[in-house]
Amino acid sequence: MPDVMFKDLSIDATADGDLPSRVAAFWGAVLGQAATAVDERGPGGLHRLDPPPEGPAQRIMWLDAVPERPAGKSRVHLDIRTADGDPAPLVAAGATVVREPDDEIAWHVLEDPGGVPLCLFGPNPHWPDAPMGPFELVVDCADPDALAAWWAARTGGTVGQRPGQPFRYVEGAAGFPYGFWVFTPVPEPKTAKNRIHWDVVLDEATLDDLLAAGATLVRPADSEVRWNVLADPEGNEFCVFRPE
To answer: Given 23, 35, 188, 197, which is the most exposed site by the fewest CB atoms within 10 A?
Structure first.
């Protein structure tokens, strides 16, 4: 049985005027999910993106207004696939193209209106039935073997790899709504809070179990938040909720 189940994904947007609302509207347009302001307290408030009626409940996404601006490269991003891989609709919705496909990469790298990156892919000739929309959650790390194994152990998933490739991926993680959870090596260390983080719900484990397994406590639950904020062995933040 898994220690935790994947719950949902949260994206930060700097509380600067209407920027959080524009970021929420952007992701709503990209994912085909309705963006709703659910908490207007504080600058920017909180927005929720509900999945379409036929979509999995775990694909809820939250847009959080935060005081800090992006600092350095984000270590977590989503890979998204469309039928033609054309970035024009995303640009029209507010994205900025950061890198075009070239000899090294076959996809576009974009940023949402708040500076959070995403990668845009077109059809996969080797996978004709590849799903459209978000299909991978990608995490930069120093040791993909160790970090993929850690999250696979926590979520009951299995670790896979492609011959000759340095990244690792987790499949079958409890509650995970995307096809692959990818852990890819990068040379630079983590220096700032991730602009994207995931939330989990305790299943067979306790908070102490997660800490004993190598997580660290970033912020305990208190009168303001009812969840605990932890970090995995490489410092990636995640929020831990108790079962309802």
So the answer is: 188
118-166 pLDDT, tens digit each: 999 998 888 778 888 899 999 999 999 999 999 999 999 999 999 999 9
SS3 content of the chain, % helix, strand, coil (to 5): 15, 35, 45
CB-based contacts of 149: which residues, under 8 Å, 6+ apart? 159, 168
Give the least confident one: 46-50, 168-172, 235-239.
Answer: 46-50
Position 202 scores a pLDDT of 96
CATH of the domain at 183: 3.10.180.10
Q: Judge whether 31 and 61 are in contact, CB under 8 Å.
A: yes
- Look up the domain containing 88 and give its range: 67-241
| 29 domain residue, yes or no | no
- Residue 109 and residue 97: Cα distance in Å, rounded? 6
Contact 213, 150 (CB under 8 A): yes
Report the domain count for the chain. 1
Q: Are 27 and 95 in contact (CB under 8 A)?
A: no
Q: Which helix (H) or strand (E) holds 228?
A: strand 228-231
Token couple for 164 = 């000759």
